[in-house]
Design goal:
The complex is a heterotrimer of chains A (461), B (182) and C (311).
Chain A lengths: L4 E8 L8 E8 L2 E6 L8 E4 L4 E4 L1 E6 L12 H10 L2 E6 L10 H14 L3 E4 L15 H6 L6 E2 L9 H14 L2 E4 L4 H4 L4 E2 L2 H6 L3 E2 L1 H18 L2 E4 L5 H13 L3 E5 L1 H5 L21 H12 L5 E2 L8 H4 L16 H10 L6 H7 L2 H6 L19 E11 L18 E11 L2 E4 L31
Parallel strand pairs in A: 1-4, 1-5, 6-7, 7-8, 9-10, 10-13, 11-12, 13-14, 14-15
Antiparallel strand pairs in A: 1-2, 2-3, 5-16, 16-17, 17-18
Helix pairs in contact in A: 4-7, 7-8, 8-10
Chain B lengths: L1 E9 L1 H19 L5 E6 L2 H17 L4 E5 L29 E9 L3 H11 L6 E9 L11 E5 L7 E5 L1 H4 L3 E8 L2
Parallel strand pairs in B: 2-3, 2-4, 4-5, 5-6
Antiparallel strand pairs in B: 1-8, 7-8
Chain C lengths: L18 H17 L14 E6 L5 H12 L3 E6 L11 H10 L4 E6 L4 H8 L3 E7 L5 H15 L6 E5 L6 H12 L3 E5 L15 E3 L2 H7 L2 E4 L15 H8 L3 H5 L6 E3 L12 H30 L5
Parallel strand pairs in C: 1-2, 1-3, 3-4, 5-6, 5-8, 6-7, 8-9
The chains are: A alpha/beta (461), B alpha/beta (182), C alpha/beta (311).
Chain lengths: 461, 182, 311
């Protein structure tokens, strides 16, 4: 028997059990061999998980890793490091790259690059339409059949505005058996908008993005999913009205799931008064009333998943006039602590439920068994784990984050809960809350930079 | 900081006698009240100028023009206790060919007087400019000397002279003391 | 708004001023107005200081007003405008800010089409910043000069009934005026179609009506906003003709009034749209007064921010 890893004294979070269980975990050959009390050390590497929770590695079904094409913001290497620093062992990345992921060769490129980095699973979502233009369907079937096994399809920040195109896309997706992910935004209503429409947009003189821009498309896509029978997943739900629509749709049995971001669970639009572009994202931070509504939606199960919408942008792109700054904030490395403080500590979800929304729930929606991935802590399955101490407090210093971009909305925030170890396929990919062993040094790898750094990319999300 | 008085330098009778004397002196040197104008430096200099003008009119008859100057816009020293509001300046008469007496309560470094003269020049070209003060406490930083002095009060640098006038403070008196922590 | 702390004083928004500070500035403006009536209209108060006018959006009157105000205080003035400066060469605002300050500027007066730029500039430029209009956000000195004009006309501001008519949504002037008027205890009624009103404006303590007649019968001051055709995206109202008929100060409305309100306008006027040409002629004295008050008010603001030991 090769020597493996022995995780001692952790509180193990197993979905098969009611609550955390104090036990040791023995990992050999990348597989969880034994979960028991008092396992002897032997020649194994021992990780002391005293006071920590040992949970399934987190799964993020909504990130932007910017490769290929925008490596000055992030690449699959830095994005993977940010992921494992946040406790994620699998991330799905959106197709708005350059070129965009609308065919099998780009999908396979991203998939292969993820494997090459080897820190976590990197799985691409595909574009729903060619070039995310909302006109002709992308090669959904080919992307699904290729070695990347693309399962989620979305035009993300450029949502399909033509309802006829959306209808046919859903019908086609149903045939292939894949998921349509909707970034719900009626562009005619949100065009030019900068922050949530409401008291603060009025006070600050910034054009508003009304809640209805989201809700109208949530309604449309629910209606089309109901009609076509396609599986629909609504990304980053941010308004009370969207939660209400989704709650009703689920009650009727419409095949729809949805997600919320940590920032929409913890921040509101009153924080925009400093015109901080690091708080500018789409959908925007909403009113406190909306924040309460998404928390309720999370509590009652309307919202299935917590996903980061990690959207890196370079400092020079964010340090501009507010209305010229791109939308998006990074979120991989702050996700778990924010959820612990805004969701678990506030009693919205129990620890186990919160972790489920961050792991097993997205894994199930994304049909990850296709890749042989199981989000859980059980004997006999691959060891994809996160070990975190829920009581350690730390202050967010953007300079210390692994992501190449530093556009976090939590700059200077005091967060409780720290990821200490991430284990991917039995390898320790995050050591003691600090550096990652593999990959490059985080600097920009010029060999991989494709396209001009100052190019005019249209980055929404 | 609050002002803590150590001694009273002048009482109301003293001030009354002084203003009367200075009005006579002004008349004597100006050879009458014709061409005479008094310009008070805000705030208390303005009231002193009005008193002097009333006295001169009482003695000589005729009317003496009185103006008001706010010197804050002309100061060369960085005011550490800059007033939140810039006071108004009112000189509603032609200065040229006038014998102007600048009236202030206390003459100290001379910087206020310098600022007052600069301000005055922006309104015209007086024939003569003179200076009348109630108290001269010394410590000049500029070559300025008063033409009419109510009382010379030798002071040290950290002492303060506080002038109170009925029009603003409800009482006429001059005290010497210092600012102390509350 | 929290006043940013870069060691300098700024005027970014009326919301940073309380009632007392507004009155202090108006009182000082009155003194500066006297300075402007002197034979020598210049005082040495800001001698040795340098003020940069950074106007990234076309504006003649506000820029001239600030320039004159600074010069009357003996400050040196440099002018940047987007056409002639490096901004058109792709330099970022952040670099522009740092460059200007490296030239030893004590204050930047900034006009920009993006809301929030003056606040952002306080983080990039080590000097005082004065907002001369940022997008649809605020135009604090305009509000101060409007209050000055109203105060000189009525002798008081408290309890004054002020109607603000027109495209409130796109108007930084309306926003600053609402903040300022509410702070000094005036009542404000906004006039116009809902399609020109920002959402939740009532939260600022103002009334809203679609009836110009109702407003005219109620108000002491009728403040007409310019219809900003260049800012109106999409269809906010059917036509200029219908706008003029329903929300404009027409001759028939004006002649029918028992008690005529003070008519104000931030300029430039669209004759025949928000105000009939004949009435514009009649009230142009007040509009001229607004303009001249502008220099005095801006002198008060510049002196307040740069005079004394805070410069």
């Amino acid at each position: 028997m090769d020597s493996g890893i022995l995780i001692k004294n952790g509180n193990i979070l197993r979905f098969s059990k009611g609550k955390e269980q104090k036990a040791d975990i023995l990992i050999v050959d990348g597989i969880i061999r034994r979960i028991d009390r008092g396992i002897e050390g032997g020649s194994h590497r021992i990780i002391d998980a005293q006071d920590c929770i040992v949970a399934p590695g987190l799964v993020d079904m909504h990130t932007h890793l910017r490769e290929p094409g925008m490596e000055h913001k992030e690449d699959i290497g830095t994005g993977s490091r940010a992921a494992v620093a946040g406790g994620f062992t699998a991330v799905f990345c959106m197709p708005n790259t350059a070129p965009c992921i609308d065919n099998r060769s780009v999908a396979e490129y991203v998939f292969d690059r993820g494997k090459e980095e080897g820190l976590c699973m990197v799985l691409p979502h595909g574009a729903l339409t060619l070039g995310q233009k909302g006109e002709a369907l992308a090669s959904i079937g080919d992307m699904n059949a290729c070695r990347a096994h693309v399962h989620g399809f979305s035009d993300d920040g450029n949502p399909v505005s033509d309802s006829e195109v959306m209808r046919r896309a859903m019908e086609y997706a149903r045939t292939i058996g894949v998921l349509v992910i909707s970034h719900a935004e009626e562009k005619a209503l949100s065009e030019g908008g900068q922050i949530n429409e409401g008291y603060y947009s009025t006070l600050l003189g910034l054009q508003g993005i009304p809640a209805e821009a989201e809700e109208i498309q949530v309604f449309r896509d629910i209606a089309l999913a109901e009609k076509t029978g396609a599986s629909l997943h609504v990304a980053h739900v941010s308004t009370a009205g969207s939660v209400r629509l989704l709650r009703e749709a689920k009650k009727r049995g419409v095949p729809v799931t949805c997600e919320v971001t940590p920032h929409h669970l913890s921040l509101n639009d009153s924080m925009m008064v400093q015109y901080d572009t690091n708080l500018k994202m789409n959908p925007p931070l909403r009113s406190e009333k909306d924040v309460q509504a998404v928390l309720e939606g999370l509590a009652d199960g309307t919202i299935d998943v917590i996903a980061t919408d990690h959207a890196p942008h370079a400092a020079h792109e964010k340090e501009v006039e507010f209305d010229l700054a791109p939308f998006g904030v990074i979120g991989l490395e702050t996700c778990l602590p924010v959820v612990l403080s805004s969701v678990v500590a506030e009693g919205v979800l129990k620890m186990g439920d919160a972790i489920r929304r961050l792991s097993a729930a997205p894994a199930e929606i994304m049909n990850m068994s296709r890749w042989g991935y199981v989000a859980g802590v059980e004997e006999g399955i691959a060891a994809n784990l996160v070990i975190f101490n829920p009581d350690i407090e730390w202050t967010v210093d953007p300079g210390l984050l692994s992501s190449r971009s530093k556009n976090t909305p939590y700059r200077g925030a005091r967060l409780k809960g720290k990821v200490l170890f991430t284990i991917y396929r039995g390898n320790v990919v995050l050591e003691d809350g600090g550096g990652t062993p593999a990959g490059n040094d985080g600097g920009l790898d010029m060999d991989r930079v494709a396209g001009p750094v100052h190019g005019e990319e249209k980055q929404k999300a | 900081m609050v002002f803590k008085a150590r001694a009273k330098v002048l009482d109301d009778d003293d001030i009354s006698r002084i203003t009367r004397r200075i009005s006579h002196e002004i008349l004597e040197r100006s050879k009458g009240s014709r061409e005479l104008a008094l310009v008070g430096v805000r705030t208390r200099g303005v009231f002193l100028a009005r008193r002097l003008a009333d006295l001169i009119e009482e003695i000589e008859g005729g009317e003496v023009e009185v103006g008001e100057l706010d010197t804050s816009l002309y100061r060369d020293d960085v005011a550490t206790n800059r007033a939140p509001v810039v006071g108004s300046t009112k000189i509603n008469f032609d200065l040229s060919s006038k014998r102007v007496v600048i009236v202030d309560d206390v003459l100290y470094t001379g910087r206020t007087t310098r600022a007052a003269m600069d301000a005055l020049m922006d309104f015209g070209r007086p024939k003569v400019v003179q200076l009348a003060v109630l108290i001269d406490r010394g410590h000049r930083e500029l070559p300025i000397r008063a033409d009419y002095v109510g009382k010379n009060v030798p002071t040290s640098g950290n002492e303060k002279v506080k002038v109170s006038l009925v029009e603003v403070d409800g009482i006429d008196m001059v005290e010497i003391g210092e600012d102390v922590e509350k | 708004m929290k006043e940013p702390d870069n060691g300098h004083r700024h005027l970014l928004s009326v919301t940073q001023l309380d009632r007392g500070r507004i009155y202090d500035l108006l009182d000082s403006a009155r003194s500066f107005s006297e300075v402007l009536s002197r034979p020598v209209k210049k005082v040495p108060a800001l001698r040795g200081k340098t003020v940069a006018n950074l106007f990234m959006e076309p504006s003649t009157r506000t820029r001239m007003s600030f320039e004159l105000a600074a010069k009357r205080l003996s400050a040196d003035v440099v002018n940047f405008s987007s056409g002639g400066s490096s901004i058109s060469k792709g330099e970022t605002l952040k670099d522009t800010g740092k460059t200007i300050v490296a030239m030893g500027v004590d204050a930047v007066v900034i006009r920009h089409k993006s809301a929030g730029v003056p606040l952002a500039l306080t983080g990039w430029a080590d000097c005082s910043v004065i907002n001369a209009g940022d997008g649809m956000h605020e135009h604090p000195t305009q509000a101060l000069l409007d209050l000055y004009t109203m105060r000189e006309h009525f002798g008081k501001l408290e309890g004054l009934k002020v109607a603000i008519a027109g495209d409130v949504d796109h108007s930084r002037v309306a926003r600053s005026n609402v903040h300022a008027l509410k702070r000094v205890g005036a009542d404000v009624l906004l006039v116009g179609p809902w399609s020109l009103m920002p959402v939740e404006m009532e939260e600022l303590g103002v009334g809203i009506t679609g009836s110009m007649d109702e407003a005219l019968n109620w108000c002491d001051v009728m403040y007409l906003l310019r219809v900003q055709l260049e800012r109106v995206r999409g269809s906010r109202f059917p036509s200029l003709q219908e706008y003029a008929r329903r929300y404009g100060l027409t001759t028939s409305r004006w002649s029918g009034l028992q008690k005529k309100p003070l008519v104000m306008h931030p300029g430039p006027i669209n004759r025949g749209v928000e105000i009939a040409s004949e009435i514009a002629d009649e009230v142009e004295v007040i509009i001229a007064n607004q303009v001249s008050a502008g220099v005095a008010v801006r002198m008060a603001v510049l002196y307040d921010l740069l005079g004394g030991d805070n410069g």
